Amino acid sequence: MAGVVGEGAGTDGNAVKLSMALRNCGGIFSDIGEHTARQPINDEIPWMENLKEYQSLMGQFDGAVKSSIAASKKFSALALMEGKHGEEIPVSEKEAYKSRLDNINTVTLCEIHNFHEVMKKDFKKYMQNYLQAKMDYHQQLMTDFQAAKTAFDSLPYD
Length: 158
Prior knowledge:
Blueprint: H1 2-8, H2 14-38, H3 44-58, H4 61-85, H5 91-153
């Protein structure tokens, strides 16, 4: 048995090449594991931080919307009060209330519109950056896998 193993055991160096390719492949997989562990810094974490930022910005609209609703209710109450009590509110006072209400509503709607426009641009940029980081990561994996495969492609074992 020793003679059979001795005769065929790597006299051409291919067994050593196979061992080296396997060892190299193991190192590449180890590198891929380390790269995968570091990857969230490049894609997941920035994405989540951006979402948190927008979450906090959304909370700012609560006050503006409530102010707009309160102004509308106050103007409606003014009209009801005039009808119930029979008191005539001067036209100039009604116009002043209406003007303030219109200003509050216009400013609120403008802020919401502006926020929405900026948000669309930001989310486009966020997704572009996220997807580019994913593509870079997967391209690096493909390069690593190709390097590992190349070492096996040159072996004569078919």
